[in-house]
Amino acid sequence: MQPSFEKLIPPTGSSIRCFDRSIIEKPAGWHYHPEVEICLIERGSGTRFVGDHIGNYADGDLVLLGANLPHHWASDEFRGQRYDRHPAVVVQFDPVQFGGQFFGLPEMVDTVELLDRAGRGLHVRGETQQRVAVAVREMLRQRPSARLLSLLGILNLLAQSADLAPLASPGFAPSFHPRLQDRLNRVCKYIHDHLAEPSLNQGDLAKLAGMHPSAFSRFFKNGTQRTVTDYVNELRIGLASRLLLETELSILEVCLRSGYENASNFNRRFREFRGMTPRDFRAAHRAPGGHPQRAFEPPPRAAAPA
After folding, report:
1. pLDDT tens digits, residue range 230-286?
2. Residue 64: beta bridge partners?
3. What would the CATH number be for the domain defined by 178-284?
4. Cβ distance 238 to 272 under 8 Å?
5. In what order do the strands lie in the sheet with 62-65?
6. Is the domain defined by 4-166 classed in CATH 2.60.40?
7. In 10 A of CB 98, how many CB atoms?
8. Residue 22 and residue 88 in contact, taking contact as beta carbons nearer than 8 Å
9. Which of 64, 180, 183, 65 is nearest to 132 (CA)?
10. CA end-to-end span of the chain
11. What Cα–Cα distance (Å) separates residue 202 from each residue in 75, 92, 193, 236?
């Protein structure tokens, strides 16, 4: 899908933006900006979109995003609402402001390599996630000078860590066509808001976009690197996975709440995306003692060929 450009303005006296996302009146949807971003989800669950990656997120999710990398977090809590204001600490900075000479210093070699890898988005896990999360929260309370030092410390910690997993595919290269972005954004928001409705279909989406069904099919795949069917099923199975882990709902109820009308289709699609049945998935990813856990992160699915 075509992302919108977001113009970021740092506060007076600082080159770094650091804020609680939940207080933003109108947070951006699918968007990009030249600033590098660190995003820590304090509370919530939903679907994470980074480049051509689609995955689940939960409490404590931490991601480093490179410059101009399209991204969006669609939370379960705010599904159907105009703005998605889930709690998250966000740090944004423009490496260009630091200057080429600064990043040319020998001490910055590892950080430069890190920022290059962040062009695909990096999911931060394990002990590194815990240490960076503490430092990011502390940045909210710091003065600009201390905030800059903390940012450099975080980047150094990330650059030395093995707890980083790339999100977007290696060949992902965003292409921006502003005249098409509103149409596709409108369609994708409609899909997300009506995900649990079995009546969601490609014909209605084509009408929403004002296009002939065959033209819409090509348009959607060019914009998302997925067919409409694959896109919808990927989101629905992501929702089903969270319901299986975070609730005590029966398999049939999870099936119905995820937009599937019958268990056989649900089981077939679930096996396709997760490699096991919903029941086996729930059993395999339960925390000790049989209680639901919220830390499941499925491996990224490769994007469909354009």
Report:
1. 999 999 999 999 999 889 999 999 999 999 999 999 999 999 999 999 999 999 887
2. 38, 122
3. 1.10.10.60
4. no
5. 16-20, 88-93, 36-41, 62-65, 122-124, 164-166
6. no
7. 15
8. yes
9. 64
10. 12
11. 23, 37, 15, 15
The count of other CB atoms within 10 Å of the CB of residue 2 is: 22
To which residue do tokens 């149409």 refer?
Answer: 183
Take residue 245 and report the two structure tokens written for it.
């882990």
Residue 108 φ/ψ, nearest 5 degrees:
-100, 5
**Both tokens of residue 183?**
């149409």
**CA distances in angstroms from 271 to 57, 201, 248, listed in the order given:** 20, 22, 20
Cβ neighbours around 150 below 10 Å, total? 18
Mean pLDDT of 164-169: 96
- Could you tell me whether strands 46-50 and 53-57 are parallel, antiparallel, or unpaired per DSSP bridges? antiparallel
User: Which one-letter amino acid corresponds to residue 88?
Assistant: A
Q: Do domains 4-166 and 178-284 have the same CATH topology?
A: no
Domain ranges of the chain: 4-166, 178-284
Residue matched to tokens 């940012």: 151
